[in-house]
Amino acid sequence: MTPIDGYPILTTAAMRAAEEACGDPAMLMERAGAAVAAAVGRLAGGSAILILCGPGNNGGDGYVAARLMTAAGHAVRVAADDEPRSALAIDARRRWTGPVEPLGTALPAPILVDALFGTGLTRPLENRTAAALHRLADAASLRIAIDLPSGVATDDGTVPTMPPRFDVTLALAAPKPAHLLQPAARQAGRVRVLDIGVPVTGDAHVLARPVLPDPGPESHKYSRGMVAVVGGDMAGAAELASLAAMRAGAGYVLYLGEGQGPPHGLVRRRWSPDALDDPRIGAVVIGPGLGRGDGTGARLATAIGSGHELVIDGDALRLLDVDAPRTATTILTPHAGEFAHLFGKAWGSKIDATRMAARRADAVIVHKGADTVIAAPDGRVAVSAGSSDWLSAAGTGDVLAGAAGAMLAAGLPPFEAAGAAVWLHRAAAAVCGRSFIADDLAAALSRVR
């Protein structure tokens, strides 16, 4: 069992293609069942195990795991509400020599293993199946899903039938979109990958810990990165972005707006049409607190025309013509409402929609949310797993924009800069714990670095 960070994310079609390229499907099911048996055996300790087997290959994996765990001395029972239908599942069921209990009347066990339906489900579960699954899950002390919780749609994270909330999901070979996209991801619990001997590749990955540039003995404030933050009507938001850029590692942060006060290391100047003429500026952050009043459009046009690398957030996204050409590298950081304003109604999964938006805008898109998706114009995607629900507070997006500016100014390419900022933002939220405010989040960036 390994954490999913850095793994390719495979859709149903991609997973099937990867499995077909491996050759003997019966051997692949045996390997999958063996990996499940080993993982569940470790998690279960000496507790009794109930495996729920469906009619397809996910159920086949369950039958194989039951056979191998029984042979290893574990107390295992199997329940099903239908006979196997695929040739592989039929053979796996035949090789399980124990009884198969009716799902509807099965008694619970401390360890519940859901092998009813895995990758590829697109329809709701039958009511009796869903009711039995919830009943048995409610009575279990540890709930484990094989590949995916039964009831979720693999490729877009929707839930045709809301499953129980599992403690652990054992992803076979690679994570799937539903392990990361909400609302399905919430039901999966901790996701761990089981190696079943299937090589996996793809242009969408789970966001991994970034490699960040550190200063050396020859470093100075400008070589570490100079970030200019363009202020506007609401100084607090732009100041939060400025503080975040400083805490994320920028060597010099210039705040262009009104107001005075700490931190004293923040350089403050009033906005002027030539404020961005300094060639040492490595990145410009515009949007946090900008407002939409007179002059804000001109500030955005000046920022775009400056030639500096850009992070465009907040109010600036409402003013931006996403189809207008830009010469500079750009990161756009919309939440769901801003994304809809820029690109219209999303099509397909959040991954699909963000990838298409990045191509259209010729920019890196950070599509924020509990399942933040980062996409580059060349089709690469990274999805952040496990963001804190406490990030749903005013100002946290401003902190992310400032961190992204610092990563750009430090010299990271835009896709990597966006990913590093999202990772730092998520890690800072974990440091803060519960009920934090955006100021705490910005300060926690120093601890994370």
Largest sheet: 10 strands, mixed
User: How many DSSP helices?
Assistant: 14
Task: Give the CATH architecture of the largest domain.
Answer: 3-Layer(aba) Sandwich
Low-confidence stretches: none
Overall form: elongated
Number of structural domains: 2
How would you portray this structure in words?
This is Bifunctional NAD(P)H-hydrate repair enzyme. AMP binds at residues 368-372, 397. Residues 204-449 form the YjeF C-terminal domain. Keywords: ATP-binding, Isomerase, Lyase, Metal-binding, Multifunctional enzyme, NAD, NADP, Nucleotide-binding, Potassium. By secondary structure, the protein is an alpha/beta fold. The chain contains 14 helices and 18 strands. A ten-stranded mixed β-sheet has the order 9-18-17-16-15-14-13-10-11-12, sandwiched between helices. The protein folds into two domains: 2-199, 3-Layer(aba) Sandwich (Rossmann fold), CATH 3.40.50; 226-448, 3-Layer(aba) Sandwich (UDP-N-acetylmuramoyl-L-alanine:D-glutamate ligase), CATH 3.40.1190.20. It has helices spanning 12-20, 25-44, 57-71, 87-95, 127-139, 184-188, 235-247, 296-305, 314-319, 336-343, 350-361, 396-409, 414-432, 438-448; strands spanning 2-3, 49-53, 76-80, 100-102, 111-115, 142-146, 168-172, 190-194, 204-206, 226-230, 252-256, 267-269, 283-286, 309-312, 330-332, 364-367, 373-375, 381-383. The two termini are 28 Å apart.
